[in-house]
Each structure stands twice: as C-alpha cells, then as structure tokens.
Amino acid sequence: MSKVSKKISAAPSWLGLTDDRLSFVFLPDRAETVRKIFELAIGGMGSYAIANYLDELKVPTFTRAINWDNTTIDSMLRNRATYGEHQPKSFAAGHKKGIPSGPPISGYYPAVVDKATFDAAQAARQQNLAHRGRKGNDLANIFGDLCSCAYCGSKVIFHRISNVQVLVCEQVLNDGACSRSAWTYKDFENTVLAFLAHPALLDQASYDLKAGLLDLVEEIKGLSSDEGRRYARRVNITVLLKRIVAGLLIHSAGNLSQPRHSSAQIRKDIAGRFLAIHLQEGPSYTCISIG
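Structure (tokenized):
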C-alpha cells in the first residue's frame, strides 16, 4: 500500500514537510517560539504581555504581519495541534473555517509541547482571565497572584488610588472589613527584589533555587543597564518569580489586633508594614520595608 503524502495546508504554522512530503517536521525557530509562548503563559503572562515581549525581542511572526497580536497568541495556546492532535474537518457551504468531521486523531502531528504543558497553560490562562491586568505597553505588576493578605487570606491585588499604584487586599476593594492600608507598588517591588538579590540569600539557597536566583539577579541588573529590553526583562522576572517564590504574605501595616471597618479610608504605606516570603524550596523569610 502506498503512503499518502501530507498536506502542508493542514499543518500548523510551526511545521513543514520532509522532501518526500510523507512526514511533518519542525521549523526549528518557530517551534522554539511556540515553546517560549507556553513557558510564558504558564509563568503567569497574558497574551498581550507575551505579544509585547516577542515584539521587543524582534521575534519574527509566523505570517507577513510585522507585530505579534494577542489573538494569535490566544489561538496558539488553545491549539491542540501543539501536543499532536488533529481534528478532521469538512468545509460545507457557509463554514469557512470548517466543521469537525469525526473524532480527533492523536499523534497526527509531532508534539511541540507535551499534554501536561498544554494543560498547565490552560489553567494559567483561566487564572489570568480571572485577575486580568491592564493591556498597556508596560508590565505594571510582576507578582501576579503570588500575594495574599496576612489578615484575611484574600488575594492582594494591584490597584490605583489617585493615580498611585498600590497593592491592596481584594476584600477591601469589595467593601469587606479588613486592613484598609495599601502598600505602594514601587516600594513593594523594590523591597522584594532587593531581598531576593541579596548575596546572603544565595549562600543559603539549594542548588536548584540558586540557579533561579542567579538568573533573577542578572535580569534585575539589566533593568537599569538595558532600557531597550526593559519590558522583556520584566517578563523574565515575572516568570522567574513563579519558579522561586511560593507565596508572599503581606502585612500591610504590621500586626493589627482588629480588622478595619469597611467604611474606613484606604491609607498608603503605614509604618510597620512587612511581608513573609515563602520560597519554593527552603525556609520562609520575613522582610521589612525600609520605606
């Protein structure tokens, strides 16, 4: 029985064909880009942030478009062809994109990521949709969903009060009774990154954790020395933080004996604020703001 040649029109854009047209093969640069997109998504980055990241690094698109588009990123992250599955389709009148015809075929394409990676990206995308940040050209919050409130256990989220960027308990923004104090974002970021980049922490870290911390230190140094790649470096820092930090428990105003009433005004940077940094491996640390 003769083998049937493959149709390149049916292949995802990171695959080509062998010379005999019998097998799909990776286009190496594109396959690496797809893997990077999944890594960034699992690290907590949304599609807008990933598109900006690829544009800043001048990664070529898979089409004639000059810039990456967030819809392209979303479509790629949802595409089951990334782990090898193919859904046959029929193209009846009125269905330009085709309609499913028969069950999906596993292993039809070479998998650019495994199924576990695909599933992890879907979970991360759902979390991003639940806590979506702004779509601008700057990565405002590098901590994603790592921060939680020491008083009620709710998420501590990025917010703006009179054009000042802060982190504040989600309960407060939902008119709940909790600590109604906010931590100025810039001061919080400087405090956490300075602690994680301290040489004393490197000396105590395990081998695997030390590798992540060393990468983090290099990206932090690059923020001031390489303005042309600032966005990309902040994306890399965000991904590294997910690998290094298990959680940040925020005491916005020190130890409070009673939660503040829901009608109280939100105040910024009250003295005594500190946080507990829980690492993925190793002990937890208490870090006090010097601001």
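The first helix runs from residue 28 to 42. The chain has two domains: 8-130, 147-288.
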